[in-house]
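Section: Multi-chain targets

For targets with more than one molecule, the full set of components is provided together so that the structure can be written out for the assembly as a whole rather than chain by chain. Components appear in the order listed by the source. The example entry contains two components.
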Amino acid sequence: MSVYRSLFDIIGPVMIGPSSSHTAGAVRIGLVARSIFGRTLEEVRIVLFGSFAHTYQGHGTDLALISGLLGLPTSSEKIRQAYDLAAKANMRVIIETSEDPTEHANTVDLYLKSADHTLSLRGVSLGGGTIDITRINGFDIHLSAENPAIMFFYKDQPGIVTQVTGVLAKANINISTMEVSRKGKGELALMLIAIDGRIPTSVMEELGSIGHIDQVIALGALNIEPDLISDSEQKEEYSYDPQITGNY
Amino acid sequence: MIHKLQEIINLCEREGIALHEYFLRTEVEESGDTEEAILRHMEQNLSVMEQAAHQGIEGVKSRSGMTGGDAKLLAEYLQSEKALSRSIYTRAMVYATAINEVNAAMGVICATPTAGSSGTLPGVLFALRDDLKLSRCEQINFLITAAGCGIVIGNQASISGAEGGCQAEVGSAAAMSAAAIVEACGGSPSQSGHALAIALKNLLGLTCDPVAGLVEVPCIMRNTAGVVIAISSAEMSLAGVKSRIPADEVIDTMGKIGRSMPPALRETALGGLAQTDTGLEMARQLKETGHIDIESV
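Its structure, encoded as tokens over all components, is:
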């Protein structure tokens, strides 16, 4: 399996030190979680495993995860003030560590909460800032966020996949990878489709109108990060958001 | 996507192209971006490295208080009459130390391939730039060749200290750098392969044992040492010395050694230098006061 495909997976990201896996990768896991959640966060419980659990203070992994959840890019100098920024955003943060064994050394579970919505997600930082989201609401998946992707929560039914791929085919959108996972026959299912290029809003609306689909979430590609050197303050903040089309 | 370095080298030599040309072409195919966009992005990353080098030579201090200021000392020493070698080696050491000190101080850096190993590759590049008067375009090509080799290493073995120890970070950085130096000096793709193999061989088995879990001790000095391995390996290959073990087999070996390393030596701070009396004392101070007073340790 090729984890690294782009030159910029190796020469990059541009980031705040000190660790690409424990700082930049953690920011990116936070950013993806924020995008999937897609609404104002009131509380997050962060459970760290393995090397994350043992060295998070030294690496600022906690600061990095919180910053990602707040929408800061990996290169933001504001990462150091993450706790203050979270307090200002009225986001409650709970940090826990666990000795439970995990498949990869740098693993974190995030439990996101707002008044009417929850999301649980497992993120793994593979090294060099590359990440893999391996679990969402109990579904086993793989989301690297290297390419744009569309995520569907729906009721397991015959024909859903055909309808979705039909809409994409009609819009001339190419599918690069696809994963389907379900809790049980006829129960809640998750479909993850990585695509080439962006998803027009009209296509998102059409996908959202397919019967039995609860939620469609469009995710941008993660490696599009702002250039801190040449850009202004405002552009630095929440730069990842425009890539997200949001929930329908 | 080709996974073996030897296949890439063969293809380049068959088509008469340089490694950076092959890697740029692949990036265009994989990303769908234009050459111009990719080169521009790489140049932005180069600018970040330049700024970090500059900042580090001026002198920075990490938040823990454990490291900082060594690049400044090295730079002053280099200017003095005392300096043993006023060569590319010492200059590369200054740059590498500077950039990794900025990383430890939570400054802005570009991961090459990781943040913990962000000093070695630009350290080598900037010393080479000073010596050979490399143009900006040649510097970008250097980064592309190094990055392409890094993709191969990452996919065949690892570039993560938590997975493979420091050999996967500084080892990979030195190997990528060695291959890129050879190309910048007019060597063949095959010679780049030998340089990569020699550099990585010389760093096999290097553990990741950061004191107090911070990317400071011994990380910064390992970046500094990484440049010396990178340059010496490139020199050997340019002289015609060949690695008896092919590059792809060395890369595989690095991955295997990483997987057989105990977790204590893979970025957990539970072994190696992190568990020395002094290392533990510094960890204790950090935990109790949030700061390390190096004079008292």
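Chain B has a mean pLDDT of 96.
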